[in-house]
């Protein structure tokens, strides 16, 4: 063991201790650099024969820091350096009359070095695993948003095509009525006036529907010259009957005072009921006993409620039918008319979709 007289002066000991402890400040940004600086300070301590210092424990912390933040080969290099330092320290400072007492004095240091290396590598592996999970979550969220955007764009394109059919049908009615008015203008003025009134009402309704859909039209859609009107509330009975033929019992009720609705709104109601019943048939499971479709005409709102007693609460949310995308398509339709839609499992079991469409929405085309 080095004697007290062989020890360097106190300021050199402080300098060496500072060289080992100082790199702790940059251990996160530059772990390998901090370890190299601390190791060089420890080697200077060995060259100056200072004996062991409390600051030597920093080397083990620096080894852990390298193992937890750097690649495995860098951690292995750091562990080998610390082990070599422990061996040199044992040769110089742990001696007896017969020479160095190895490996008795070296074993505890080796165990501590191995423990720091294993602990650091475990932390680094876990940190990398958590980072990969976060990246996967971000990627999954990004893909989900992209799918939602694609589904919304697809639904808007389909609504645009359907509205083209609706407006085309209205224009065909106007052409027929105009021809009739021109034919009977002098011989039957009353009939001509009625035809002109029909033309006015039909034109205003068509203009209103077109203005409602301007926000969802997409460039590049191919035109469809069909004048066949799209289904509406009047066709719900046939839709329910078709679903019954597929072995799904459906109850259909309409409450309140029915009133004339815009063609596009009737189409939205029909598609919402169609989408909900299709998904009930696909996802409600074998235990569904019946489904219910209820229309309620309020003073200023039309409520569409579709419910079942099956188990389709989870699978319905991401379902696709006929180019739509589950609730995404329904939300697109009700949003056109300033409505809202809610869905979710029922307290007693089953799934329910409730859409509300305002009946007193501003008619943008009435003033034109």
From TrEMBL:
Domain DUF7134 span(s) in chain numbering:
11-127
Annotated membrane-spanning segments are: 7-26, 32-63, 75-94, 106-123
Reaction it catalyzes: ATP + protein L-histidine = ADP + protein N-phospho-L-histidine
Judged by the first EC level, this protein's enzyme class is transferase
Question: Mind listing the UniProt keywords for this protein, alphabetically?
Answer: ATP-binding, Kinase, Membrane, Nucleotide-binding, Phosphoprotein, Transferase, Transmembrane, Transmembrane helix, Two-component regulatory system
- Keyword check for Manganese, yes or no: no
Tell me the Pfam families matching this sequence: DUF7134, HATPase_c, HisKA_3
Q: Where is the Histidine kinase/HSP90-like ATPase domain?
A: 266-360
The EC number(s) given in the record are: 2.7.13.3
| Gene Ontology cellular component annotations, sorted alphabetically | membrane
Presence of the UniProt keyword Transcription in the record: no
The Signal transduction histidine kinase subgroup 3 dimerisation and phosphoacceptor domain, residue ranges? 155-220
GO molecular function annotation: ATP binding; phosphorelay sensor kinase activity; protein dimerization activity
What is this protein called in UniProt? Answer: histidine kinase
């Amino acid at each position: 063991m080095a004697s007290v007289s062989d020890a360097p002066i106190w300021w050199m000991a402080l300098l060496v201790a500072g060289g080992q402890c100082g790199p702790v400040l940059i251990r996160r940004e530059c772990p390998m650099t901090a370890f190299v600086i601390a190791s060089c300070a420890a080697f200077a301590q060995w060259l100056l024969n200072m004996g062991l210092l409390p600051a030597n424990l920093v080397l083990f912390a620096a080894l852990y820091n390298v193992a937890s933040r750097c690649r495995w080969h860098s951690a292995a290099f750091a562990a080998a350096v610390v082990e070599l330092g422990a061996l040199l320290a044992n040769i110089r400072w742990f001696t007896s009359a017969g020479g160095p007492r190895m490996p008795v004095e070296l074993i505890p240091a080796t165990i501590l070095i191995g423990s720091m290396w294993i602990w650091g590598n475990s932390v680094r592996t876990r940190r990398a695993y958590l980072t990969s999970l976060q990246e996967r979550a971000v990627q999954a969220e990004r893909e989900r948003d992209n799918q939602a955007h694609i589904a919304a764009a697809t639904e808007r394109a389909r609504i645009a095509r359907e509205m083209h059919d609706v407006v085309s049908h209205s224009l065909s009615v106007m052409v027929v009525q105009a021809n009739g008015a021109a034919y009977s203008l002098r011989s039957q003025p009353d009939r001509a006036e009625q035809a002109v009134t029909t033309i006015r009402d039909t034109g205003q309704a068509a203009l209103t529907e077109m203005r409602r859909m301007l926000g969802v039209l997409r460039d590049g859609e191919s035109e469809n010259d069909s004048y066949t009107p799209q289904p509406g509330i009047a066709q719900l009975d046939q839709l329910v009957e078709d679903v019954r033929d597929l072995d799904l019992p459906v109850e259909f009720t309409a409450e309140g005072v029915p009133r004339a609705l815009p063609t596009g709104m009737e189409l939205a109601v029909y598609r919402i009921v169609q989408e909900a019943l299709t998904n009930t048939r696909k996802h409600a499971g074998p235990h569904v006993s019946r489904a219910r479709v209820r229309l309620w005409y309020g003073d200023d709102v039309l409520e569409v409620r579709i419910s079942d007693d099956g188990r389709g609460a989870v699978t319905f949310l991401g379902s696709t039918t006929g180019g739509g995308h589950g609730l995404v398509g329904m939300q697109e339709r009700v949003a056109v008319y300033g409505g809202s839609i809610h869905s979710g499992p029922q307290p007693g079991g089953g799934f329910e979709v409730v859409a509300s469409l305002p009946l007193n929405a501003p008619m943008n085309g009435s003033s034109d």
